[in-house]
């Protein structure tokens, strides 16, 4: 039996960012139950403060380079984890900012929304810190289960319900794969710690490699890589738009954190790499090609952004493959930078959709945006910034994110992969530019009655979110130094310099 | 030559015979007297009413969820209980902390009226 | 004495059964049961490995999987009830508002 030292206060302090959010979630639930108020803005503020505390704690720990293990080594708070703490807290803050008015318009503004977001985020933070399989699994479940509920949050909306059902089935299916794989890995290595897993490949390779395959399939489901992507467009389209924002960013970034850690710490030895690397290259190509091709024919914005988020997963996979192949922390830093920029630009695009959503109807079709440039020049300009950044036009953040990833991929000798990536990026310009063409150059079909763009979804929160994301996409594109330095600091803790 | 397999054959014959014999003997000996009541789920006591596939009240579902929480709670307090002999008080505190969080959940349910049978929605 | 191999075989069969149910059944509740089968197959593996390798990690893992499965089932049943209220069916194939 292992050592029997009880969990102490230092352990709890170590996971402060996650713990803080879970406690805030419980406080919100109880406060709302015992002192119900008509306006739920207090809950929103508590959520924002809690997220802010975790964010600053993560940033502080990242700059101070804290690297310690807690809970008998099950949780490792290293700069890589802190970087994801920062990204995930930022992403969820954006999702929370976009929510209040949208939910109020649909009579669904309950405090539970904020509590569920907080519970989910606390799971995500532990997910990126997990250094042990039990922890990884529990964090994954803590992260996913609240999101199933959030997708069904507009309770009497049948689209929302259906999306939730589909998302749940695929999510739980992926969990089943992952748990079975984890069981095999545990059986081969006799321990759940990531660092011990390579031992299993030597003693019982059959168990180890089948376990590795199943676990990675589970992860590929979560990041929506082709061919495990079938839930993504439906879930994105049916979910309430603020929840889609949350799913497209935080729920997307968190599995990457766990996957990168597992790939480098547990599956980073050369025999395993030889097995998963070709598969990942194939999946990355498929993901980029299918994601971008199918996005071309979409007419619904949320669906289109869903497919585009699949395509972006493909680019990130390219970055991961390149950084493992080069064994370079610089390359991994480019992945982190890309995720950071991706969070900003995607949140902005969804924010514009929320701004123009009506009481009972979302403004989702691309055709709904015709004439926006004339009627609402500011909103159209913001949308233009996000779409151009998603396309990858310099000097916006999206361009540099892609540029860094692709240049490291070329350095790693993955030229064919980069050619596919660049071709599909060009392809993606067609559907992103479709939005810009609709906003500025297309005449409304009925010129007598141009579409009325009322700011029904307007709220101070949302405007703050839009301004921040637009500013971030431009500023961190032109001056990428700060995020890149921090990302390098984070990546160096996972891939030490040779 | 391969007489050892004869055992298998004898075993099979005897085995099949032991199943068939009671069926055949029963068929020969028992009286044959069917009437409709014999097909009912219970031959004595109360007559059944309604469909066997009856609908349960949806309100049971909320209570079921509450039950589920405390059902599973037991599973999670087993590990600390097992090490309590070695760990002493901290293990006990850990159990109470866990139950405390669950109790907060119960308070939430109670305040929202999910424990009432007649809940005004 | 039941060997590790036999436990693993049973677990693998159970997992495949769950997989087939999830893939080929349309009723949401059947799918949920299939997922539970998959998780329980993993549990058999955990306990079997724990017995053969010594140590308690596998057993503790199985307990946590049970807890997570219960939480998942609770949410799933809530979603299924909601689906029945809004769409009037628990057949996932009949839910086709989102063309997926």
Describe the structure.
The complex is a heterotrimer of chains A (498), B (121) and C (100). Chain A is 76% helix and 1% strand. Chain A has 21 helices and 2 strands. Chain A has helices at 9-14, 16-34, 41-64, 79-97, 99-105, 111-129, 133-151, 158-189, 197-203, 205-222, 231-238, 241-266, 270-296, 301-326, 329-355, 372-375, 377-391, 397-411, 415-440, 460-478, 481-494; strands at 68-70, 75-77. The model of chain A has no long low-confidence stretch (mean pLDDT 90). Chain B has a domain at 59-111. Helices cover 62% and strands 0% of the residues of chain B. Chain B is flat, with a radius of gyration of 29 Å. In chain B, 1% of the residues are buried. The model of chain B has no long low-confidence stretch (mean pLDDT 80). With 100 residues, chain C is mostly helical. Chains in contact: A-B, A-C, B-C.
Radius of gyration of chain C, whole Å: 17 Å
Query: Which pair has the most extensive contact?
Result: A-C, 45 and 45 residues
In oligomeric terms, what are we looking at? heterotrimer
Query: How many beta strands in the DSSP annotation of chain C?
Result: 0
Largest sheet of chain A: 2 strands, antiparallel
Helix count from the secondary structure assignment of chain A: 21
Strand order of the largest sheet of chain A: 1-2
Regions of chain C with pLDDT < 50 over 5+ consecutive residues?
A: none
Indicate how many domains the architecture of chain A comprises.
1
In total, how many beta strands of chain A? 2
Overall pLDDT level of chain A: 90
* CATH topology descriptor of chain C: Helix Hairpins
CATH class of chain C equals: Mainly Alpha
- How widely separated are the two ends of chain A? 37 Å
Radius of gyration of chain A: 22 Å
What percentage of the residues of chain C does DSSP assign to strands (E)?
under 5%
Helix content of chain C: over 70%
Structural class given helices, strands, pairing of chain C? mainly alpha
- What's the shape of chain A? globular
């Amino acid at each position: 039996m292992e050592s029997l030292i009880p969990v102490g206060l230092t352990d709890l302090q170590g996971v402060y960012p996650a713990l803080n959010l879970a406690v805030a979630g419980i406080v919100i639930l109880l406060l709302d139950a015992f002192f119900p108020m008509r306006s739920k803005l207090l809950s929103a503020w508590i959520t924002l403060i809690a997220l802010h505390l975790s964010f600053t704690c993560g940033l502080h720990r990242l700059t101070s380079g804290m690297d310690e293990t807690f809970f008998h080594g099950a949780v490792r708070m290293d700069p890589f984890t802190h970087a994801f703490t920062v990204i995930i807290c930022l992403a969820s803050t954006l999702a929370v900012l976009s929510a209040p008015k949208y939910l109020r318009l649909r009579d669904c503004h309950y405090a539970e929304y904020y509590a569920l977001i907080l519970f989910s985020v606390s799971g995500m933070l532990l997910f990126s810190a997990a250094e042990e399989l039990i922890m990884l699994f529990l964090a994954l479940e803590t992260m996913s289960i609240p999101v199933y509920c959030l997708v069904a949050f507009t309770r009497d909306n049948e689209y929302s319900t259906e999306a939730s059902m589909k998302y749940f089935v695929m999510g739980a299916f992926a969990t089943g794969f992952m748990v079975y794989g984890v069981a095999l890995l545990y059986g081969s290595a006799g321990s759940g710690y990531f660092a011990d897993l390579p031992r299993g490949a030597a003693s019982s390779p059959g168990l180890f490699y089948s376990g590795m395959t199943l676990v990675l399939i589970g992860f590929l489901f979560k990041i929506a890589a082709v061919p495990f992507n079938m839930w993504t467009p439906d879930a994105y389209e049916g979910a309430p738009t603020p929840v889609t924002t949350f799913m497209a960013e935080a729920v997307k970034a968190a599995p990457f954190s766990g996957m990168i850690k597992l790939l480098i710490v547990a599956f980073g030895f050369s025999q395993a790499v030889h097995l998963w690397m070709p598969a990942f290259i194939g999946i990355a190509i498929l993901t980029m090609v299918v994601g971008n091709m199918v996005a071309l024919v979409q007419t619904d914005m949320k669906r289109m952004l869903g497919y585009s988020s699949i395509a972006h997963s493909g680019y990130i996979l390219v970055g991961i493959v390149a950084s493992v192949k080069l064994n370079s922390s610089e390359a991994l830093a480019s992945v982190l930078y890309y995720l950071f920029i991706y969070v900003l630009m995607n949140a902005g695009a969804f924010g514009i959709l929320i701004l123009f959503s009506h009481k009972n109807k979302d403004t989702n079709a691309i055709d709904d945006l015709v004439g926006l440039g004339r009627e609402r020049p500011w909103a159209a300009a913001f949308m233009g910034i996000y779409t151009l950044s998603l396309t990858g036009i310099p000097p916006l953040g999206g361009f540099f994110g892609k540029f860094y990833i692709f240049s490291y991929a070329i350095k790693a000798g993955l030229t064919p992969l980069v050619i596919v990536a660049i071709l599909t990026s060009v392809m993606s310009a067609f559907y992103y530019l479709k939005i810009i063409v609709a906003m500025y150059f297309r005449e409304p079909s009925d010129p007598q009655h141009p579409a009325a763009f009322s700011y029904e979804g307007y709220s101070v929160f949302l405007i703050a979110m839009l301004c921040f994301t637009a500013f971030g996409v431009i500023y961190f594109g032109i001056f990428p130094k700060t995020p890149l330095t921090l990302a390098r600091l984070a990546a160096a803790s996972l891939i030490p310099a040779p | 030559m391969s007489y050892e397999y004869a055992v298998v054959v004898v075993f099979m014959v005897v085995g099949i015979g032991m199943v068939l014999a009671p069926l055949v003997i029963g068929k020969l000996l028992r009286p044959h007297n069917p009437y409709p009541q014999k097909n009912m789920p219970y031959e004595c006591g109360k007559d059944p009413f309604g469909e066997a596939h009856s609908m349960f009240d949806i309100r049971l579902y909320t209570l079921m969820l509450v039950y589920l929480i405390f059902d599973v709670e037991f599973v999670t307090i087993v590990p600390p209980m097992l090490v309590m002999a070695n760990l002493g008080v901290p293990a006990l505190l850990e159990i109470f902390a866990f139950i405390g969080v669950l109790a907060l959940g119960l308070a939430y349910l109670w305040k929202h009226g999910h424990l009432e049978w007649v809940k005004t929605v | 004495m039941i060997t590790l191999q036999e436990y693993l075989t049973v677990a693998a069969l159970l997992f495949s059964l769950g997989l087939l149910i999830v893939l080929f059944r349309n009723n949401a509740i059947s799918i949920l049961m299939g997922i539970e089968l998959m998780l329980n197959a993993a549990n058999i593996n955990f306990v079997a490995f724990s017995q053969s390798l010594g140590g308690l990690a596998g057993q503790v893992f199985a307990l946590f999987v049970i807890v997570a499965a219960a939480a998942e089932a609770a949410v799933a049943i809530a979603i299924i009830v909601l689906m029945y209220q809004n769409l009037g069916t628990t057949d996932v194939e009949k839910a086709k508002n989102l063309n997926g």
